[in-house]
Amino acid sequence: MNTNAITMPQTKNLTPKQDKPLASTLLAQAAEILGWAENSDTSNLRAWLLDNPEKPLVCIGNGGKHTSYPAMLYEMNAGVAKSVTPLDFASMSPATIGNSKVLLLSSSGKNMDVGYAIKRATKFNPDNTAGFTFSDDPKKNKMIGALKPENIFCFKNPYKDGFISIRSKILTYALLYKAFSGCAKFADKLNLNPSYRYYINKTGELPELKDIKHFVLLYGSYGEPVAHDIESVMVEGGIASVQVCDYRNFCHGRFIFSGNHCKNRRVAETDTCAILLTTPREKQLAEQIRAKVLPANMPIVEISTELDSSLSTIQLLLDSLHFTFDVAENHHGINPNSPHNFSNIDKRVPINQVRFSSVIQQMGELTNI
Fold first, then answer.
1. Which residue from 40, 103, 230, 369 has the fewest beta carbons nearer than 10 Å?
2. At 222, is the secondary structure helix, strand, or coil?
3. How far is the C-alpha of 241 from the C-alpha of 234, rounded, in Å?
4. Which residues, at least 6 apart from 51, have a Cβ–Cβ distance to it below 8 Å?
5. Tens digit of pLDDT for each residue in 111-165?
6. Tens digit of pLDDT for each residue in 252-261?
7. Band of residue 11 on the pLDDT scale cut at 50, 70, 90
8. 3-class secondary structure for 278-321?
């Protein structure tokens, strides 16, 4: 392995839009955010989450971005859980919804997606539907008035975000960890100086990060929620495409893509890079894949933690946000908190002109007949 790993950026070419703070600036508030979570009362949320563990838990968010972490935490206890998007939820049968617990996660509760999910969940399972939110504004938050008051878990806080979720994402993970674990103090176990390693696998020249167009992201266990988050930030920021895969499935032929996009007799330049998310559980497996499956000239980003609990997800999240913001700001001149939109697609068009709710109501649930 090349030991001359780059841990900090060497270029500074940021030309961001000035209407929103830099994503890295918001990330720098992580310690304060974690402290806020430690001082929050999550006892009622914990009671709801741990009650009736025999019922499956359906976790719904805006695009499903925050929901694989609570699903993972729920399955670590005593029940089965599934992270779904609002469109996935639209396909579930009324009986499935009625036999489950439903957790809706939305910062404001005003999004049209969560509005549709609220209507469907309360229609088929009003008693076991709960909401995780940061807003108690009855004029905007669609959870208020629709869900049982005791099933609305509102954590009012001063942290607002721009185009992507940054501070509220960290806070969501921290509050969920505290609720499931019952641990009141956990920030001191985390490394709040996030880092990552960027190196060439064995031989060859290390490309500049700005020249990487595709990331092949490998994860296991506690890394899954973070893997999906990296994909979301990279794609929504217009930075690069990301192929998300667990370590085992990567060995079922998916390695061909990475091999064909590293410099070889048919490809002049390397435009792909592997991201390895590791905890102590995956360390040996990741090393074997690096040594035996990844091309010798493949660049690698390594994001790792020595923590071996669900807290490692938060550590990997902090380190991965540092990585994605570094790539965006210092190598592409993109502020993920307010990314460039060169196609000039009005961001309001997909929200206001794609008739999500009316169309899926016409489609109805899936059927086996």
1. 369
2. helix
3. 7
4. none
5. 888 888 999 999 999 999 999 999 999 999 999 999 999 999 999 999 988 888 9
6. 877 778 887 7
7. very low
8. ECCCCHHHHHHHHHHCCCCCCEEEEEECCCCCCHHHHHHHHHHH
Per the listing, tokens 């859980």 go with 81
Residues in the chain: 369
Question: Cβ(314)–Cβ(174) under 8 Å?
Answer: yes
Per-residue model confidence (pLDDT) at position 50: 96
pTM above 0.85, yes or no: yes
Please state the separation of Cα 364 from the chain's center in Å. 28
Strands (E), the chain: 57-61, 81-84, 101-105, 129-133, 152-154, 197-200, 214-219, 241-246, 272-278, 299-304
What type of residue is 105?
L
Question: Which domains does the chain possess?
Answer: 41-154 (3.40.50.10490), 188-332 (3.40.50.10490)
- How many other C-beta atoms can be found within 10 angstroms of the C-beta atom of residue 119? 14
Check if the beta carbon of residue 274 is closer than 8 Å to that of residue 214: no
- Residue that has been written with the tokens 């805006």 in this structure: 62
